[in-house]
Specification:
Radius of gyration: 32 Å
Oligomer: single chain
Number of strands: 5
Helix content: over 70%
Structural class: mainly alpha
Length: 674
């Protein structure tokens, strides 16, 4: 009687916050629990009640699940006990945020769960357990249990559960830096969710895919994926997704130095978060993001305002959000120039991060420590932490080089596989159509059939050739864009990482008064800057397109025996940043070929702005070549690259050359009205 009375009070506490229809269902199931005479029947209705509360309400109390679990254990019903244990783990992970308690529940029940014979229930149990490790930043164990969850879901033949296991496993893999494997898992999950027509999980997987793009600095791809998913999330009023999307957009803004735009995205993330069923679970992340963002733009009052809101919101369970709390405190203290206090919070925060496996968080924590020690004047300790930051940075760089290549290969192979499947399906349809036509047209004679079949083959061959040509063009242009992105990234890495180390080394050598070491360090820094400029022309960003082109022509003029004349009009306002880079690379390739092969002594470069286009003409009086033969032999990679870049600019490229009569290159680039 006492137990039933306790159930009654637990139900009352739940239905006070439920909708009218939900209240009625809960009351009806509770009455069935109370009147059930058989223990097995009572357990069945208890399990139904706990499941309904978990799936149809905000799940703000775990009391019924605890009662159902204990009752199931008393009756030795492992399946129901495992299911309700999974509910309890979910409650700690996603409602209270008490991750250690959730992990404790998982480990304590693990041996019992292993004898569960319901594969779907066991899959969900492993999934919740994996989540505890994921949130505690032990990604290796999380991946192990996500894999077990996927195995059990396959045995249960439940596609939706398979998709969930793959999606969360992909997210954990991305945190480990295993980008290509993560991409494969996420793409597989998206296909499953599309097949199941589950919009909610499609949005979730696309969110994680956008994060994967961001981790590899593919910010445009991330934004495109995120913007499309935001439209879906708005249609179904999924505020949890919207909160995550805006927060991730803010993270990209921060990585790109757009701190003001990042603050606006964080505000939208917080507003969306407050509309979710469980705002406190997500709100800590959004509030800390705002505290850090305002600290970085020296808006101390605003940062302090959000810190106060954070402390008031989580005053009863501050221990559950200790890590983000320390992150906020250390950044605000640093912004206030309270460096000793910032050092204290920074050490505590770094200790927590070092216990996890999220390399990005560890890297940021190390860099913060280097900045604090530098502000305190302790350059030795600053160097120690900066070196650790750089080592992680270098490691991530190597991972990205390898994994990004693998990632693009995975995407390419996936698309190729999909195209092959589609082509096979088309062939099957075509074969079926052909057989029907054959039976219908047999009376009209074989000649007509052959003509029709020949026509179909001709059309298909032409369409296939056009598709292959478009795919080849798109692939070549993607390679060029990827090459430029990689050059920019490497140049940035050389400048920000290696360059900073050498600058630090230069400062250190001056202390010892060794002139040779100082000269060597200075020469090395100059060489590094030269390499960095070669990878990406900094003058484009600093001086603009016109000045960069003039500088390049003057540099070739000064360092070769070729006499140059140039007439270069101002074109900066007519071209975008990417278009300017492609034009610069085209001229760079033309001048490089001229110096290497033309044996010219006079050359000219003209850039003129016409009514609807920009006309570029480069002439030399060198030995020339047979242009048609070059293309026929397909021997000149540089020339093919010129044509691809011209195609990206939607421009026409005309190369006129004849042996002993020099070469003229004419490039006409259309532009939009300014």
């Amino acid at each position: 009687m006492k137990k039933l009375l306790f159930i009654f009070f637990c139900v009352i506490s739940i239905i006070t916050t439920s909708a009218q229809k939900t209240e009625q269902v809960i009351i009806e199931i509770t009455q069935k629990v109370n009147v059930a005479s058989e223990k097995g029947e009572k357990l069945k209705w208890l399990d139904s009640l706990s499941t309904y509360i978990r799936e149809e309400t905000n799940f703000q109390s775990d009391s019924i699940a605890k009662i159902a679990l204990q009752y199931a254990l008393d009756l030795d019903s492992i399946n129901i006990a495992t299911k309700n244990t999974a509910y309890l783990i979910y409650f700690q992970n996603n409602i209270t945020g008490n991750l250690k308690e959730g992990n404790k529940i998982f480990l304590n029940f693990l041996d019992n769960a292993k004898v569960c014979r319901n594969h779907l229930i066991l899959s969900k149990f492993y999934l919740e357990g994996a989540d505890t490790y994921f949130y505690l930043e032990d990604q290796k164990k999380a991946i192990d249990y996500y894999t077990l969850s996927e195995r059990e879901a396959n045995l249960a033949n439940d596609d939706l559960q398979i998709g969930l296991a793959k999606m969360y496993k992909g997210n954990a893999l991305s945190y480990m830096g295993e980008f290509s494997e993560a991409s494969k898992e996420l793409q597989d999950a998206i296909q499953i969710f599309q097949k199941e027509d589950n919009t909610y999980y499609i949005i979730s997987a696309r969110n994680l895919l956008s994060i994967l793009y961001s981790q590899n600095s593919f910010f445009e791809e991330a934004k495109k994926e995120r913007d499309e998913a935001i439209l879906l999330a708005k249609k179904i009023n999924s505020y949890g997704h919207l909160s995550a999307f805006y927060y991730n957009a803010a993270a990209d803004n921060s990585s790109q130095g757009n701190l003001i735009e990042g603050v606006e995205n964080l505000k939208m993330a917080l507003a969306a978060c407050k509309k979710t069923d469980n705002p406190k679970f997500y709100e800590s992340t959004m509030l800390v993001g705002l505290i850090i963002a305002y600290s970085k733009i020296d808006s101390i009052p605003q940062a302090s305002f959000y810190l106060k809101e954070f402390e008031e919101t989580y005053k009863d369970r501050i221990e559950n959000v200790k890590e983000p709390y320390l992150d906020a405190l250390k950044n605000l203290a640093f912004a206030k120039k309270e460096y000793t206090l910032a050092l204290k919070y920074g050490k505590e925060h770094l200790d927590i991060k070092l216990k996890g496996t999220h390399y990005g968080n560890i890297q940021n924590a190390e860099l913060f420590m280097a900045d604090v020690y530098e502000a305190l004047g302790d350059l030795k300790e600053a160097y120690v932490h900066f070196k650790k930051y750089s080592d992680i940075n270098d490691s991530i760089g190597r991972i990205k080089k390898i994994k990004t290549l693998s990632y693009y290969q995975t995407v390419y192979e996936t698309r190729k596989r999909d195209l092959k499947i589609k082509e096979q399906q088309n062939n099957i349809v075509l074969l079926d159509t052909k057989n029907k036509l054959y039976n219908q047209l047999l009376l009209f004679g074989g000649l007509g059939l052959l003509l029709i079949f020949g026509f179909i083959i001709m059309i298909r061959s032409r369409n296939a050739a056009n598709r292959r040509q478009k795919m080849q063009t798109a692939f070549s242009q993607s390679l060029i864009n990827a090459q430029e992105e990689e050059r920019i990234r490497i140049a940035r890495e050389l400048h920000d990482s290696v360059g900073q180390k050498i600058m630090l080394l230069t400062k250190q050598t001056k202390k010892y008064g060794n002139l040779n070491m100082e000269l060597l360090a200075a020469d090395t820094l100059d060489e590094l800057r030269t390499i960095s400029r070669g990878l990406h022309p900094a003058t484009l960003d600093k001086l603009g397109t016109t000045a960069a082109i003039v500088g390049m022509v003057n540099e070739v003029d000064a360092n070769t025996n070729i006499f140059f004349t140039n007439e270069i009009e101002y074109i900066d306002k007519y071209l975008s940043k990417d278009e300017s880079l492609h034009l610069y690379r085209i001229l760079q390739e033309i001048l490089s070929n001229m110096v290497k092969h033309a044996n010219a002594n006079v050359a000219s470069v003209k850039v003129k702005v016409k009514k609807k286009n920009i006309k570029v003409v480069v002439k030399d009086n060198g030995k020339g070549f047979e242009y048609s033969e070059k293309l026929k032999l397909n021997a000149n990679l540089g020339m093919r690259t010129l044509m691809e870049r011209a195609s990206i600019l939607n421009s026409s490229l005309d190369i006129k050359s004849k042996i002993n009569f020099g070469t003229t290159v004419i490039l006409i680039i259309p532009y939009k009205n300014v």
